[in-house]
Amino acid sequence: MDIIEFRGILYVVYKLGNLYAVETNPITKMTLIAGTFPPDAARYYLVESSKDLLLVARYFQYTSRYTKTIGFKVYRLAENKKCDPIPYNGGAFGLLQPPQGPAPKIWKDVKTLRGQMLFVGRNRTLCLPSNLYPKCKGNCIYFADDNDIFDIFRASGNRPYLHDGGVYHMNNKTIEYFIEEMSYPLSLPSIWFSPNPC
Question: Which intervals hold domain KIB1-4 beta-propeller (predicted)?
Protein backbone atom coordinates (compact mmCIF):
# COMPACT_ATOMS: atom_id res chain seq x y z
CA MET A 1 0.00 0.00 0.00
CA ASP A 2 1.15 3.55 -0.70
CA ILE A 3 -0.46 6.92 0.11
CA ILE A 4 0.05 10.38 -1.39
CA GLU A 5 -1.64 13.77 -1.38
CA PHE A 6 -1.91 15.12 -4.92
CA ARG A 7 -3.65 18.40 -5.79
CA GLY A 8 -5.50 18.43 -2.49
CA ILE A 9 -6.79 14.85 -2.75
CA LEU A 10 -5.51 11.92 -0.67
CA TYR A 11 -4.90 8.84 -2.86
CA VAL A 12 -4.26 5.26 -1.74
CA VAL A 13 -3.06 2.35 -3.86
CA TYR A 14 -3.28 -1.20 -2.49
CA LYS A 15 -1.09 -4.17 -3.34
CA LEU A 16 -3.81 -5.30 -5.72
CA GLY A 17 -3.34 -2.13 -7.78
CA ASN A 18 -6.65 -0.34 -7.22
CA LEU A 19 -6.41 3.44 -6.72
CA TYR A 20 -8.79 5.12 -4.28
CA ALA A 21 -9.52 8.74 -3.39
CA VAL A 22 -10.04 9.13 0.36
CA GLU A 23 -12.36 11.66 1.97
CA THR A 24 -12.27 12.04 5.75
CA ASN A 25 -14.85 14.73 6.42
CA PRO A 26 -17.43 14.20 7.85
CA ILE A 27 -16.88 10.42 7.63
CA THR A 28 -14.17 8.36 5.99
CA LYS A 29 -15.14 7.39 2.44
CA MET A 30 -13.05 5.64 -0.22
CA THR A 31 -13.95 6.03 -3.90
CA LEU A 32 -12.38 3.79 -6.54
CA ILE A 33 -10.73 6.09 -9.10
CA ALA A 34 -8.71 3.74 -11.32
CA GLY A 35 -8.88 -0.03 -11.38
CA THR A 36 -6.31 -2.78 -11.33
CA PHE A 37 -3.39 -1.97 -13.58
CA PRO A 38 -0.95 -3.53 -14.07
CA PRO A 39 -2.30 -6.69 -12.42
CA ASP A 40 0.93 -8.65 -11.96
CA ALA A 41 3.27 -6.26 -10.11
CA ALA A 42 4.55 -7.13 -6.65
CA ARG A 43 4.76 -3.57 -5.31
CA TYR A 44 3.15 -0.25 -6.22
CA TYR A 45 4.37 3.28 -5.43
CA LEU A 46 2.61 6.62 -5.93
CA VAL A 47 4.77 9.64 -6.76
CA GLU A 48 4.09 13.20 -7.89
CA SER A 49 6.06 14.32 -10.92
CA SER A 50 6.12 17.91 -12.20
CA LYS A 51 2.50 17.74 -13.37
CA ASP A 52 1.25 14.18 -13.03
CA LEU A 53 0.47 11.51 -10.49
CA LEU A 54 2.57 8.47 -11.37
CA LEU A 55 2.14 4.81 -10.46
CA VAL A 56 5.42 2.88 -10.34
CA ALA A 57 5.00 -0.90 -10.57
CA ARG A 58 7.92 -2.99 -9.30
CA TYR A 59 8.53 -6.59 -10.40
CA PHE A 60 10.46 -9.22 -8.45
CA GLN A 61 12.08 -12.57 -9.07
CA TYR A 62 11.55 -14.87 -6.07
CA THR A 63 14.01 -17.48 -4.80
CA SER A 64 14.04 -19.62 -1.66
CA ARG A 65 16.30 -17.14 0.15
CA TYR A 66 15.56 -13.66 -1.21
CA THR A 67 13.75 -11.55 -3.77
CA LYS A 68 15.43 -9.52 -6.48
CA THR A 69 14.02 -6.62 -8.49
CA ILE A 70 13.90 -7.45 -12.19
CA GLY A 71 12.06 -4.45 -13.63
CA PHE A 72 9.69 -1.51 -13.38
CA LYS A 73 6.81 0.00 -15.32
CA VAL A 74 5.61 3.58 -14.90
CA TYR A 75 2.11 4.92 -15.56
CA ARG A 76 0.46 8.33 -15.22
CA LEU A 77 -3.08 9.02 -14.08
CA ALA A 78 -5.21 10.39 -16.93
CA GLU A 79 -8.84 11.18 -17.71
CA ASN A 80 -10.87 8.27 -19.06
CA LYS A 81 -12.05 9.86 -22.32
CA LYS A 82 -13.30 6.55 -23.75
CA CYS A 83 -15.39 5.81 -20.63
CA ASP A 84 -13.86 2.34 -20.23
CA PRO A 85 -15.23 0.30 -17.30
CA ILE A 86 -13.05 0.00 -14.21
CA PRO A 87 -11.03 -3.24 -14.11
CA TYR A 88 -11.75 -4.56 -10.62
CA ASN A 89 -10.12 -7.28 -8.53
CA GLY A 90 -11.98 -7.15 -5.23
CA GLY A 91 -10.71 -3.88 -3.84
CA ALA A 92 -9.25 -3.47 -0.39
CA PHE A 93 -9.22 -7.07 0.81
CA GLY A 94 -12.50 -7.69 -1.04
CA LEU A 95 -14.45 -5.46 1.34
CA LEU A 96 -15.51 -2.76 -1.12
CA GLN A 97 -18.31 -3.13 -3.63
CA PRO A 98 -17.46 -3.08 -7.33
CA PRO A 99 -18.00 0.33 -8.92
CA GLN A 100 -20.88 1.07 -11.26
CA GLY A 101 -20.32 2.81 -14.59
CA PRO A 102 -17.13 4.01 -16.27
CA ALA A 103 -13.86 4.68 -14.49
CA PRO A 104 -13.20 8.39 -13.96
CA LYS A 105 -9.45 7.86 -14.50
CA ILE A 106 -7.15 5.37 -16.20
CA TRP A 107 -3.43 4.57 -16.10
CA LYS A 108 -1.43 5.50 -19.24
CA ASP A 109 1.96 3.99 -20.03
CA VAL A 110 5.01 6.26 -19.48
CA LYS A 111 8.03 5.54 -21.70
CA THR A 112 10.35 8.31 -20.48
CA LEU A 113 10.72 10.44 -17.34
CA ARG A 114 11.81 13.49 -19.41
CA GLY A 115 14.78 14.70 -17.41
CA GLN A 116 13.49 13.44 -14.09
CA MET A 117 14.51 10.54 -11.89
CA LEU A 118 12.48 8.52 -9.41
CA PHE A 119 13.53 7.20 -6.01
CA VAL A 120 11.36 4.38 -4.63
CA GLY A 121 11.46 2.32 -1.46
CA ARG A 122 9.58 1.40 1.67
CA ASN A 123 9.93 4.71 3.49
CA ARG A 124 9.73 7.39 0.81
CA THR A 125 9.16 7.93 -2.90
CA LEU A 126 10.60 10.98 -4.68
CA CYS A 127 10.65 12.51 -8.15
CA LEU A 128 13.54 14.93 -8.73
CA PRO A 129 14.91 16.84 -11.75
CA SER A 130 18.20 15.29 -12.83
CA ASN A 131 19.73 18.66 -13.83
CA LEU A 132 19.88 19.65 -10.13
CA TYR A 133 21.76 16.46 -9.22
CA PRO A 134 24.55 16.01 -11.80
CA LYS A 135 25.95 12.90 -10.07
CA CYS A 136 22.66 11.07 -10.65
CA LYS A 137 21.31 9.76 -13.95
CA GLY A 138 18.13 11.10 -15.54
CA ASN A 139 15.36 8.87 -16.88
CA CYS A 140 16.19 6.31 -14.19
CA ILE A 141 14.50 4.75 -11.18
CA TYR A 142 16.70 4.46 -8.08
CA PHE A 143 15.32 1.74 -5.84
CA ALA A 144 16.01 0.73 -2.24
CA ASP A 145 15.36 -2.65 -0.66
CA ASP A 146 11.62 -2.94 -0.02
CA ASN A 147 11.07 -6.65 0.58
CA ASP A 148 9.08 -7.43 3.70
CA ILE A 149 8.31 -11.04 2.81
CA PHE A 150 11.60 -12.32 4.18
CA ASP A 151 11.82 -10.26 7.38
CA ILE A 152 11.92 -13.51 9.37
CA PHE A 153 15.22 -14.31 7.61
CA ARG A 154 16.52 -10.81 8.37
CA ALA A 155 15.82 -11.35 12.06
CA SER A 156 17.98 -14.48 12.02
CA GLY A 157 20.74 -12.78 10.02
CA ASN A 158 20.16 -14.93 6.91
CA ARG A 159 18.92 -12.11 4.68
CA PRO A 160 20.53 -8.67 4.99
CA TYR A 161 18.92 -5.35 4.24
CA LEU A 162 20.27 -3.49 1.19
CA HIS A 163 20.39 -6.73 -0.78
CA ASP A 164 17.98 -5.44 -3.41
CA GLY A 165 18.90 -1.87 -4.36
CA GLY A 166 20.07 -0.29 -7.57
CA VAL A 167 19.27 1.84 -10.62
CA TYR A 168 16.77 0.90 -13.33
CA HIS A 169 17.40 2.56 -16.72
CA MET A 170 14.11 3.40 -18.45
CA ASN A 171 15.71 3.80 -21.91
CA ASN A 172 17.07 0.24 -22.22
CA LYS A 173 15.33 -1.55 -19.29
CA THR A 174 18.59 -2.60 -17.64
CA ILE A 175 19.49 -2.62 -13.94
CA GLU A 176 22.70 -1.72 -12.13
CA TYR A 177 22.62 -3.24 -8.64
CA PHE A 178 24.29 -1.34 -5.81
CA ILE A 179 25.52 -4.53 -4.14
CA GLU A 180 25.53 -7.92 -5.85
CA GLU A 181 26.18 -10.06 -2.76
CA MET A 182 26.53 -9.27 0.93
CA SER A 183 28.19 -11.55 3.45
CA TYR A 184 27.20 -9.52 6.53
CA PRO A 185 23.76 -8.58 7.85
CA LEU A 186 22.54 -5.00 8.25
CA SER A 187 19.78 -4.44 10.77
CA LEU A 188 18.11 -1.26 9.47
CA PRO A 189 15.99 -0.73 6.35
CA SER A 190 17.23 1.68 3.70
CA ILE A 191 15.61 5.09 3.14
CA TRP A 192 15.85 7.98 0.65
CA PHE A 193 16.46 11.57 1.63
CA SER A 194 16.77 14.65 -0.59
CA PRO A 195 19.48 17.17 0.30
CA ASN A 196 19.23 20.76 -0.86
CA PRO A 197 20.94 20.78 -4.29
CA CYS A 198 22.20 24.38 -3.89
Answer: 2-168
